[in-house]
Write a structure and sequence with these properties.
- The chain contains ten helices and no strands.
- The protein has one domain.
- By secondary structure, the chain is mainly α.
- It is a multi-pass membrane protein.
- Its main location: mitochondrion.
- It catalyses: a ubiquinone + NADH + 5 H(+)(in) = a ubiquinol + NAD(+) + 4 H(+)(out).
- GO terms for molecular function: NADH dehydrogenase (ubiquinone) activity.
Length: 254
């Protein structure tokens, strides 16, 4: 279990760092999936099998929503996957913007969305284990990385300056595209409490000190503010080597 714990934490950390330097929309979402799989393995390494399955279910719902929204954006932006050519898409895709941001917030573990119920439970129960400060710190850092790449994706795609790519807003009038997205958005809102009641009929009481209890929310909030303040800056030349190293997934494909 110690080996699985180490591998899962390193998987979460690697995928989070790589996603921050990635510009391919599908790769960012795929890396976030890898990060959440690391989270599930982390839960299993602590012996929390039911929680890993619970996170698998909630993650399936909002990640399916993320991939569908990404498909609509790629289709509407002239079949490009590079988020640098997006920017200001919230004007052309208001509904998809709302749904994708809902999925992103759920992924980050914002309270009362689907991802919060499973992710926060894993984090709080992990805090009860005596693995030492390093494991806890790495877990919170990995949580922060999830928020960082999600905010960056949202900013570059929907909020930031126009990137120069083509944009067709006809996608939102196609109900076969938008229909499943709206349904999955609804499940991303309500599936958290429903699955909690189904999986854990008895209430779960977790006693933790205040700084650990609020640790996850604190890191999510700080990461949100940090990435919003960094978005005005461009990556300088000194980041080039780091960006290339991360863009090639730490040379793992080689």
């Amino acid at each position: 279990s110690a080996l699985l714990l180490f591998i899962s934490i390193m998987t979460m950390f690697m995928s989070g760092v790589v996603a921050i330097f990635e510009y391919d929309l599908k790769k960012i979402i795929a890396l976030s999936t890898l990060s959440q799989l690391g989270m599930m393995m982390f839960s299993i390494s602590l012996g929390l099998y039911e929680l890993a399955f619970f996170h698998l279910l909630t993650h399936a719902l909002f990640k399916a929503l993320l991939f569908l929204c990404a498909g609509i954006l790629i289709h509407g932006a002239g079949n490009t996957q590079d988020i640098r050519s997006f920017g200001g898409l919230s004007l052309n895709f208001p509904l998809v913007t709302v749904c994708m941001n809902l999925a992103n917030l759920s992924l980050c573990g914002v309270p009362f969305l689907a991802g919060f119920y499973s992710k926060d439970l894993i984090v709080e129960l992990a805090c009860q284990y005596s693995w030492g400060i390093f494991v806890l710190l790495m877990m919170f850092i990995c949580l922060s990385l999830t928020v960082l790449y999600s905010v960056r994706l949202t900013y570059l795609s929907f909020v930031g300056p126009y990137g120069g790519g083509t944009s067709i807003s006809v996608c939102e009038s196609d109900y076969s595209l938008v229909g499943p997205v709206v349904i999955l958005s609804f499940t991303s809102l309500v599936s958290g409490p429903i699955l909690t009641w189904l999986n854990f009929p008895a209430p779960v009481l977790i006693f933790l000190p205040v700084f650990l209890k609020g640790g996850a929310l604190f890191f999510v909030g700080v990461s949100l503010l940090v990435m919003l303040s960094l978005q005005g800056l461009t990556y300088s030349y000194k980041w080039g080597a780091v960006s290339k190293f991360s863009g090639l997934m730490w040379f793992l494909p080689w």
